[in-house]
Fold this sequence. Notes:
- The structure is a single chain.
- It contains 16 helices and 13 strands.
- The chain has helices at 3-6, 10-18, 24-38, 50-65, 108-116, 161-168, 185-191, 225-235, 271-274, 280-293, 307-322, 324-328, 338-347, 352-372, 414-421, 449-462, and strands at 45-48, 77-81, 119-124, 147-148, 151-155, 175-179, 194-197, 217-222, 264-267, 296-299, 378-382, 425-433, 436-443.
- The strands form two sheets. It has an eleven-stranded mixed β-sheet with strand order 1-3-2-6-8-7-12-13-11-9-10, with helices on both faces. It has a two-stranded antiparallel ribbon with strand order 4-5.
- Strand 4 and strand 5 form a beta hairpin.
Amino acid sequence: MTDDIFFATIPDLNARLKKREFSAVELTKAFAERLEKLGPRYNALALPLTKSAVKRAKDIDDEMKRERYRTALQGIPFGAKDLLSVAGQVTSWGAKPYATQVFTETATVIEKLDKTGALLIGKLAMVELAGGGGYRTAAASLFGPGLNPWDITRWSGGSSSGSGSAVSAGLVPFALGSETSGSILTPSAYCGVTGLRPTYGLVSRRGAMALSWTMDKIGPMCRSAEDCGLVLETIAGGDSKDPGSAGKSFYYTPQYARKHTDLKIGFATDDMGWADPAARPAFQAAMQVIREIGAQMVEMKLPDFPYGPLADVVIGAEEASVFETLILTGQVDQLADASQAANLKANLAIPATEYLKAMRIRTLLKEQFRKLFADVDVLVAPCRYDFAPKITEALDGPDPVPSPVPATPGMKDLIQAGNLAAIPALSLPCGFANGMPVALQLAGPAFTENTLIAMGKEFQNRTDWHKRRPPVVS
């Protein structure tokens, strides 16, 4: 086992398993040992599951010896954010009040992966309660601040911090994260991995911690856009036990992807003005690659809505309802971030009239996005306009205002807007700023994941940013 194995894509690992270059047991042990050894270095590991994974890997080896092949995920180890339940194992939600919590059922997404022969080798650390209430510091976690493999003095991003660190450092080939308002896209961008936020309702949330019923989504964080498509095909699908399920399946069909030259891509010139100056050269170069792919570029801006306040009201009201018992019993004060506890308490006071007003505005927002996508097929923008901050920096301060201030907001609110509109998005590594990864974001209409992945794959065929490895683990 060379280091190349730990940074290989899913198709490459699957092909080598079929060639018997190594067994599923050997691959699982190699990744599990690496996760147990290096996971704590990045505060990325919540719970190792090596024993059960190796036992399951023996069954996979028997199947492959008899050439009983399933999908490309057969025999591939993975990690899952610690808000996804595994029967009989601790699921802490990253928070002290739930540090010994054990469920009797396994989350649907993990069950689906198990049926394809993927091997869960560990639960991965996260920001407590997936950031419910908003948090001020990177240390808002039972496991400590998520550390970035590119620079351990910097944050890996939240709330899927362990998933971002683990994929970036080659501790797992892929991981599951969750997003309510940026929790897949942010750590993917900061850690230099490829992350997919699916359309709301495409992936079952049964067995996942609820934060915001109308905005929570589960998705893959991987080495490449293609890997995201392979994982999504397995975890997507209707689920009668998830009230938010869209009842739709997803099949990764790159052979039927639309021609890139037939697509229209919306962008905003003013995005470069909002980006951190150190990141602008990388974003400009990445946008040039997008242009060279051959799609028609269309200058545009997002519909005019108060995205931040709108998301705050919707998520705040729903999370206060979810964690009402935690708040009223005073256990909320056990959270690592005192400001997060205070915000959760305050959110209990959000009036029903404010929540309902926000939901009505959200309906108008979705309508405007449907109209926007009548003119373009994909939106492209920086995923995060900055790069990973120091773990000592406050996370709740105002965003820096560039000078001069750009004429329009551009698409700097695309993460919040996309979550409110329930549309999919893909984060693609696109370069570096001050030695830290930065990324582009592709977003599209609901259930157009194949289009986003095809565009992402073409971008990655023309660049190698997704193949770069953090120097601290090379």
